[in-house]
Amino acid sequence: MSNRLAHETSPYLLQHQHNPVDWYPWGEEALARAREEDRPILLSVGYSACHWCHVMERESFEDAETAAYMNEHFVPIKVDREERPDVDAIYMEAVQSMTGQGGWPMTVFLDSDGVPFYGGTYFPPDEGRGMPSFRMVMEAVVDAYASKREAIRERAPEVRQRLAALSAIEPGPAGAGPAELAAATERLLAAADRQYGGFGGAPKFPPASALELLLARGETEVVRQTLDAMLAGGIYDQLGGGFARYAVDRVWLVPHFEKMLYDNALLARAYLHGWQALGEERYRRVCEETLDWLLAEMRGPEGGLYSALDADSEGEEGRYYVWFPEEIREVLGEEAAAPVLEFYGVTERGNFEGANVLHRAQGAAAPEPPGLAAARAALLAVRAKRVRPGLDDKRLLAWNALAISALAEAGAALGREDYLAAARGGAEFAWEQMRDANGHLLRTYKDGEARLNAYLEDHAFLLEALLTLYEAGFERRWFEAAVETAEAMLARFADPQRGGFFSTSADHEELIVRRKEVGDHPIPSGNSAAALGLLRLAAVTGERRYREAAEGIFALFAKPATEHPDSFAHFLLALDFATAAVREVALVGDDVADLAAVAHAEYRPHLVLAAGPEGSEQPPLLAGRTTVDGHPAAYVCENFACRLPVTDPADLRREL
Fold it and tell me: Which domains does the chain have, with CATH numbers?
């Protein structure tokens, strides 16, 4: 017997369609029932690749007695946090304020108006783990809702006000400048783990935005150390390519095995920039292996990219990825296996529950033993026959946009036409199939259906992606799409009173608060991405209001960003772009490939690029530019004031 989740498209919600719990998806039907029956809401939030979400489902949501109690006393609502980041963000902040911590699965108890009054994360089925059991928690909530109802009702306005506080921040007298940016960079460097790379201790998450910021600021030591530590560790899939979500230890060895699209898109770009800035071929290799994995295993037939691979297979975390020494000897033979076992640090004792997570035991720069490529291929072929981890095959617009950016930039820099084709295909899919009848962008796509109103991050990431794709191949349609996306973002998400952008559009369904999201971990916030995208668009259009909108974001959040750079790295990257001497490069002519190759070849974080035939008026950076004696010409400009044009690629390289 299925519940209401059977009609959803989210793989996470569909995983719960056969629970005996009378689940509702988030929506008016569930909220109306709670109001009509004056019944509390039990909100459960997770995502498909979440290990402990699966555990709580097996222990509690599949248990008939537990489900019966939930159904009798609550309106149970199940939410996929990846589909509904708006709902997740509101109630995660509430749980963190109540308990001092957060995570998934998240369990929150709401009054009949949707205001939270108690919550936590994972609750076990019994109380033998130093925690109250899930049943005990529910019984206490039911008792409190009955006996302390007036107190819960009186506290609700204060809870709403607290959750809306970020959106009520007034702009400061001025944004941050070069001095504050330099101080923030020093704070970030001071937080670096100088022994093992990254920032802080265990668990360790890939700090893609922080690495991008440090590279843009010319700080390479921590970047090199972190890129090396991650590519050598078990967080990187040494056989198949791609990165796991995070490492449970300080040394990047044992991962939490799920693979997320967003991490891999961001890290592919970070390794590309690392290769361009530092010249290490191993960074180029990891960039290509990561993107090759995305295209081989995570691409749908329509060109969109799937969201995630689960951590679990056959009910065990990491089972798909780990090895025992005898398995490798059986595949490769005793003699050929010996150097492979040593290179990948495989021992009889193991490093993960008796098994082995493969890693480059001698470090990132250690030479590979002869025959390693063939050994990898043989092991990968055997691994492919194992039961695969679960696939979350919904396509999220924001995460696809991150991948489009990575594919487009890598395609242009590495001369990989297959990456450029994949980026174009992904953009065509998003632009043509993830919009509604009014042309508004939609958040998610699965089984031929796009749905849910898109968020600020969807628009902001897509703006950056479209500009990057335009710069990679100079198809004017992508520039025009970028302008259209920016205009929609300004019209539907901007706060004309205080500046910055709300996470949800003005025509979004009404939640208990309308929020502005900040913080760039694990992925850039919508406001940070909007700032950088609008600045780049202003640089190729000369449109002042795009820059003013970005400056409004800086005025709101500059103080916390400069004080906590590890949490605002993409914001600071946008601020770095805003305070830098940005080069605007206009390429004019029918064949500008040789000149474009110069611009794409090196790491140039403070450069925007436009190209078109003589007489082009769009983007405006091209207006009035001409060829030189019929030869394609490059104009290097700052604030639309250009130097004399050059026609030789070597001259352009010197100009840049």
Answer: 4-163 (3.40.30.10), 194-311+392-579 (1.50.10.10), 321-385 (no CATH), 583-655 (no CATH)
